Amino acid sequence: MIEAATANAVRTAPPPAPGLPPGDASSADILSRVERIAAGPLAEMAGRIDRGHYPLEIMASLGRAGGLGAHLDRRGQRFDQAIGAMAEVSRHCGTTGFLVWAHDVFGLYLEQSGNPALCGDFLERHARGDSFGGTALSNPMKALSGIESLALRARRVPGGYRVSGTLPWVSHIAAGQYCGALAGVEGADGSLSHEIMFVLHCREEVALRQCPAFSGMEGSSTWSITLKDYFVGEDELIADPARPFIARIKAAFILLQTGMAVGVTQGSIDAIREVEPALGHVNQHLDERPDALQAELDELRQRALTLAKTPFEGGRDFLLEVLDARVQGAELALRASQSALLHQGARGYLMSAAPQRRIREAHFVAIVTPAIKHLRWEMARLMREEIPS
Predict the structure, then answer these.
(1) Three-class DSSP category at 233
(2) Euclidean distance between CA atoms 141 and 151, whole angstroms
(3) Which of 92, 143, 194, 316 could form a disulfide with 43 if both were Cys (CB 3.0 to 4.6 A apart)?
(4) Averaged pLDDT, 334-357
């Protein structure tokens, strides 16, 4: 998954790119800074990223521009700016937009943990893009919904916990990086008493194994992680117990993903408009046209930004709205990306063309946790008022 990298290579932040403004997350021009990075160096690199390059240099630039921390309380809890930045990145490269989401939600975990050991310099370095890490909650989110079994198990020991198990498909990690993970706590009889959430540092004793090649998202640095008696100290605990914490951040976790859907959809509409001068006379007979798609996208964007005003609002109705917006975004990305390929024809079917890449990126938006089927599962359960405790 990582171009020219090995599992034991320690990753550090790349040196600053020339000409980028300093990263002040409170600045009013965050989005314009992100747009310049996305439309410039990121757009030029999108093909390499699709083939497996892990773009930490771009992520570092986005961090300095304030594009990785706007949603944090210490930056004014601007979820609208975070979604907007993620959308602009995803407009040019869906893989990097996914990395931004993974990076953002890890920052969310740290800040919402209330653990002083996690909320200080560690969080600041993460938000600035000086260090990198993602999220390992794909399996736990499905496990807590009753879709699959929890992969990691923990047992209490003096000073913390020992964790063992194997997690597949963990993105935005590498040796020397970190992620947020969750494990079920086993009692002496093997039964689970509760779950813990913790920072998993990819230290020497953590085995990272390459995943099979994906059809897309190869630059996301996605690995399988195996732990054997991995020690989690009190300073590394995000939540103990974890379920109340997950319930509190769940809507925000999912809402942030709308940035990926909005961006991939906008990039697809851009590709349709690109060929209008040459092919509009025949493309007018296609069903999905750019103005109609843009109107739907603008409505979705406004819906997401309205929800972003109260990302931690509790209650069944708010969560249902978030889940429905996430489904709407995934389905719109699928339709728009297919339409872009049909509008562009053979030129869009070249391996070097953005429309065929966005087809694969849109399918990822539809299957990444929570996938469309998972979202509908959750919505059906909420409609029956079977809300997990």
Answers:
(1) strand
(2) 11
(3) 92
(4) 97
Total structural domains within the chain: 3
Contacts of range 45-51, beta carbons closer than 8 Å, 24 or more positions apart: 45/93, 46/92, 46/93, 46/96, 46/354, 46/357, 47/352, 47/357, 48/3, 48/219, 49/93, 49/95, 49/96, 49/218, 49/219, 50/93, 50/95, 50/216, 50/218, 50/219, 50/357, 51/3, 51/218, 51/219
In a domain, 333, yes or no: yes
317 within domain boundaries: yes
Q: What is the pLDDT of residues 288-326, one digit of tens each?
A: 999 999 999 999 999 999 999 999 998 999 999 999 999
Q: In this model, does residue 14 exceed pLDDT 70?
A: no
Q: Given 132, 152, 177, which residue is the final one in a domain?
A: 132
Q: Kindly state the percentage of the chain with pLDDT values over 90.
A: 88
Classified as helix, coil or strand, 201 is strand
- 214 or 157, higher pLDDT: 157
Q: How far apart are CA 122 and CA 72, in angstroms?
A: 14
Q: What is the reported pTM?
A: 0.92
